[in-house]
Design goal:
- The structure is a homodimer.
- The first copy, chain A, has 9 helices and 16 strands.
- By secondary structure, the first copy, chain A, is of the alpha/beta class.
- Chain A folds into 2 domains: about 35 residues; about 270 residues, Ribonuclease Z/Hydroxyacylglutathione hydrolase-like (Metallo-beta-lactamase, Chain A, 4-Layer Sandwich).
- In chain A, the strands form 2 sheets. Chain A has a 7-stranded mixed beta sheet with strand order 8-7-6-5-4-3-16. Chain A has a 7-stranded mixed beta sheet with strand order 9-10-11-12-13-14-15, with helices on one face.
- In chain A, helix 6 links the parallel strand 12 and strand 13.
- In chain A, helix 6 packs parallel to helix 8 and helix 8 packs across helix 9.
- The longest helix of chain A has 19 residues.
- Chain A is globular and about 50 Å long.
- Chains A, B: Keywords: Membrane, Transmembrane, Transmembrane helix.
- Chains A, B: This is MBL fold metallo-hydrolase.
- Chains A, B: It holds the Pfam family Lactamase_B_2.
- Chains A, B: InterPro entries: Metallo-B-lactamas, RibonucZ/Hydroxyglut_hydro.
């Protein structure tokens, strides 16, 4: 019954999957459209509208400097075709002692990779941008792979009181991680504090304890105060929702300890403003990775040098570098951010103990 | 701080999401490649290899007639650009009586939409190709949407003894549905019977009770015998796994009732062979939808006319049409398959009671 003569197979025909067709056609159509014309849109001035400056009339958000970060598709291709992707690297992963996590004797912070921290202060346990999945992607089989395993599983987490999310990119908002954390505490789930417009996304996952805040708004709950703060970034989760939900940094005040998480951000004046309004930040988590190539990344991601300036702008007591060494998102080598950070600190005459990096799974007490 | 003058936004720049870039670049690269050359590959004859005829040396599978179904990317575009997508339609959805499902007094079958049935026979409850999610897609925000809600939730299902999966396309193998069913019965999960090569996929979901079978192989378990049978189709779930896992129809023998589920299939001689080896099929579920346009769909999806021929080839006692009225995958109107089925039956002089369709959620007893 077998006829090898019929086995002519068209290479590239691996795209015949009915279910992938929708995606591919969307993309193909838009490639053609993008090839024909790039249309610039000037927003009408809505001078009299009664809304905050970063809320646009079309329902999207902009940065405090008025920019909507927006490279052209041509620039995206220019980057991706010319790029040399860095190699995956091995990093030490420390396994946190469950007893130390269960009964912290002091304020402590555990780095879970990328922008995920477990903050334990004043008897409260707070997670930032938790990500425990294999990829930072809407697809389980494609998209940036996690190079370094999470040092803790969701099961091994202590009871969590609050989860803060900086924005909706897949390396910061991971559905499986959020539902896993939520379902693990069915009787007493954490509160999920998110930037404006993101509550709906969490509700669609079945999470009923989401609270959304605009910049400078605070939510006091269970002995903690969580404040959304402006940073310079953008949002997008599907094809057509660019900047429709807000991005933020977070100030977490728990038991008098003030932890600032800068989310994802380019360098901006926002940090001076935050430092002036909150002059007593104990610890700031500041992104130091995903910066190359600068011509493409500068608006959305600060460099280690800029991160040092942010530390100075904030006038924080201590800082920890984050957003590096976990996924390969951009062109710098995976281990380069802390090296550049050390150089930048030295250039400014700042002792490295003030702004350091942690090992994956390392617990630091304050 | 807001400067409307900076608000120049590039249309089409909505693709800047770092996490979507990987997908888009893959697609863009392959579009370019496909535009340059289409390379035909002739498989070397592996005449002496000690393997079944449908197992190829490169690890992929072919149909019993030797074909690997494989339209060109050009044909895909030709279809998608010329197509008029049919409108969504409303269908009656019946809510099955939970008591009838909990205590069936006879062999009964409930249609859960598309290719999903709940078979209850000999005290066993078997699900075929269960799909309870909003989309048949690897993406939660794009891909074919479910037009008609599932008549039952996973929570409302009775205890399930076995789940059979025909192949790995997203409208037949839905991860969330499978994990939902598995996790609902932690102490006594169903067995998941899948075609060769698919066990690994289920294991990656955390499902530990998967059994994989090649065509004509049977698995006897818990008073049921489940047999994988050849049909004419193909498989693909990611970009590069075309035909790397097998597709199958299933014969479920429970309490002496013989239920044949044809999976997804074009018309082929396989059904005569199945009818000759299993001359006493009580009920056959046969696909009648997703057939237009014929030039593109013929190899993979039979028409209602061909479905009637399959019914005759099988010599089954009764048949039910499936694979219609739930998702919009192809070009025919959503309600056309049963109308064409009725015409085809009349043309052959077959009474409509022998080969009918069910309403969503309808329970039929035998």
């Amino acid at each position: 019954m077998k006829s090898e003569g019929n086995l002519e197979t068209l290479k590239f025909s691996c795209f015949e999957n009915l279910q992938l067709k929708t995606i591919l056609l969307l993309v193909a159509s838009l490639l053609v459209a993008a090839g024909c014309a790039a249309v610039f849109v000037n927003e009408p001035d809505a001078a009299m509208a009664d809304r905050p400056a970063h809320h646009r009339a079309d329902g999207t958000f902009v940065n405090t400097d008025g920019t909507a970060i927006s490279k052209s598709f041509t620039d995206l291709l220019r980057w991706r075709w010319s790029r040399t992707e860095p190699d995956a690297m091995a990093f030490d992963v420390m396994e946190p002692d469950p007893e130390v996590l269960a009964q912290p004797v002091a304020t402590q912070v555990t780095w879970l990779g990328h922008s995920a921290f477990l903050l334990q202060a004043g008897g409260k346990n707070v997670l930032t941008d938790p990500h425990f999945s294999e990829r930072a992607s809407p697809l389980s089989f494609a998209g940036p792979e996690r190079i370094v395993v999470p040092p803790l599983s969701i099961e091994a987490l202590p009871h969590i009181h609050a989860v803060v999310i900086s924005h909706n990119h897949y390396d910061h908002l991971d559905e499986a991680s959020l539902t896993g954390i939520y379902n693990k505490q069915p009787d007493n789930p954490p509160v999920f504090v998110v930037p404006l417009g993101l509550k709906e996304e969490l509700v669609s996952y079945g999470i009923k304890t989401a609270v959304e805040l605009d910049w400078w708004q605070s939510y006091t709950h269970d002995g903690m105060t969580l404040t959304a703060l402006p940073v310079k970034h953008w949002s997008q989760r599907t094809f057509f929702d660019r900047n429709r939900t807000l991005w933020a940094g977070w100030l977490v005040d728990a038991g008098g300890f003030r932890f600032f998480h800068a989310g994802d951000s380019g360098y901006s004046d926002d940090f001076k403003e935050i430092g002036s309004r909150y002059p007593d930040i104990d610890l700031a988590a500041i992104p130091i990775g995903a910066y190359d190539p600068r011509w493409f990344m500068k608006d959305a991601h600060m460099s280690p040098e800029e991160a040092v300036q942010v530390y100075l702008d904030l006038n924080a007591r201590k800082a920890i570098g984050m957003h590096w060494g976990t996924f390969i998102l951009t062109d710098e080598e995976m281990d380069e951010p802390p090296l550049k950070l050390a150089d930048a600190l030295e250039a400014k005459g700042i002792d490295g103990s003030h702004f350091s990096v942690m090992k994956h799974g390392e617990v630091v007490q304050f």
